[in-house]
Structures are given as C-alpha cells and as structure tokens.
Amino acid sequence: MTHRYFLKALLGISILPALFGQTQASQTQTSWTAPRTQDGHPDMEGIWTNKTITPLERPAALGNKAFYTPEEAKAFAQTTLQRTDKDQRGGGVRDVLNAYNAFWWDSGTKVLPNMRTSIITDPPDGRIPPLTPHRQAQLQEQAEAVKVRCQRPGCAIANSGQMSPADKPKIWT
Known about the structure:
It is a single chain. By secondary structure, this protein is mainly alpha-helical. Among the domains are: 81 residues, no CATH class; 29 residues.
C-alpha cells in the first residue's frame, strides 16, 4: 500500500514541471540578475581564487586566439607545471629557494574549464589595455608631488613622504 502511494507521489512530482511548461532551471536562467550594491555598482563580494594555470593576460605569442584546443590545453598544462615545479630538489642554494613545494602554493594544475587562453576576456586580445594619457598624467603628477614632499632630510620616496622611525629625531631616548 505505501509503495503504491510513494510511486504515485513521485510520478506526480516529476510530471508537475512538464504540466506548467517550464522547469526550475529555466525559471532561474531568465529571472536572475546580477546583485548590485546600494549605489548601483555590481556587487563583487565573495571569495576569489586564482587556482588555475590560465594566465591573467594572454601570452603575446597567442595573438587573438581566445581558446585552446583540448590537445593544446593539455600541452600548455604540462609545460607550465614542469616550469613551475617547486619540488625539484638539487641541493645548495636552489634547494633553499624551493623550500616551499607545490603543497603550499594555490596555483592550480589545470587551465580554466572553458579552455580560455587568458582570464581577461575583454578586450578581445586578452591583455590589460595601456593606461590612458589622462591616467599617465595623473600618475606623473603624483610622483612629482611625492618628490616635492620628500625634499626634507630623512625622507625616502619609498615611504611616500613619511619619515621612517629610524630617521626621526631621537630627542626622547
């Protein structure tokens, strides 16, 4: 008795989406919108991981090639993993420099599932565009302002015009 009731209920539940013309998946695809912050900008909160060997920028040698073929992706992964293998033990200084093997790095071992040649998708060449002349001028102005602020003794440009603790007068010591 309970078996028949269970089967009827299961059959009824599985038929409901067909009767109403759409499934839950199709409803979410058409009704989903990207979350926004209070000021209307896209909400970028969350966790970022760069656990892929796909480079941020497309290598210049690939030109405008947006995707790898499966064979190219496999070859790229193999050469990249060999080149970045931190577990190569050779003794001496190199052994010390490679003290943190691959276990400690979150670099990933595969290209992106869509086999893109870069994480950047726009512009189409997959590379970070150059700075605009306006932004270059702004950065130049900032650099000049730091140099002007750092005319006093004991000021290093590296610390943006603030005296380092070692350079402060030692009046109270």
